[in-house]
Amino acid sequence: MRLVQIVVMGFVMFALPGHSQEIGQLTTAGEQWDKRFDKRMYLYGMEPVEFLRSQIDNLPRGKALCLAAGEGRNAVFLAQQGYDVTAMDASPKGLEKASALAAQRGVTIKTEVGDLQEGYDMGVEKYDLITDFYYHDTKMLPDVMRALKPGGMFVLQNFSIQQLDTNRFGPKNPDYLVKPNELLEIFADHRIIYYEDTVVDLDEGMHQGPGAVVRMIVLKEAVE
Fold it and tell me: pLDDT tens digits, residue range 56-105?
């Protein structure tokens, strides 16, 4: 497997909203997102996050868990690549649309309703790949690494704290944004094979334009 060099880039950044952290606490996260997803359109589009697409040949095959999967664009893409995929989200409506997208693309995915903020049992050494896109919660990261098989990988792309430099869109609560080097410190005991703190041009459904993101791939392999 080809390893990817760590790249760190410093820019003034902009960002887009995270997933269940984007909207106000009116009801439960699932009910909030059911309301958002109860539209014919796919809010973030039907295509996967470009970082996932670009790195797919570097990732281990097998069982995959997509955290905060939303309407399923990344889960369906992984299923198209041959993964045995479980898509979890707080929104039953989002997962319903994920299953519909999978059927449209000629693949199948498993779906599980769960709320990461309330605690979600990922299991132990169960998955070869776990993904997390636009949902930042450091409390769940130990569970993520426990759920990976030895040699498994965790892939994420989340918004950085620099999104607060703009009112373009996105979470306003800094707790939902990645701080500088925060993830490098959290995963210091694991092998980080890709890290990038940058601005990218996003083309994801409703969200168009520059976004401040942290991209990371962590291998479950102890660092001596």
Answer: 999 999 999 999 999 999 999 999 999 999 999 999 999 999 999 999 99
DSSP codes, 175-207: GGSBPTTHHHHHTTTEEEEEEEEEEEEEEETTE
Token representation of residue 207? 């969200």
Give the angle subtended at the CA of 203 by the CAs of 206 and 132, to the nearest 5°.
85
Beta strand pairing status for 190-204 and 207-222?
antiparallel
Closest CA to 10 of 195, 211, 161, 199: 199
- Domain positions in the chain are 29-222
Separation of alpha carbons 36 and 108, rounded Å: 24
Query: Which amino acid belongs to residue 57?
Result: D
Q: For the domain bounded by 29-222, which CATH number is listed? A: 3.40.50.150
86 and 109 Cβ atoms separated by less than 8 Å: yes
CA atoms of 6 and 41, how far apart (whole Å): 36
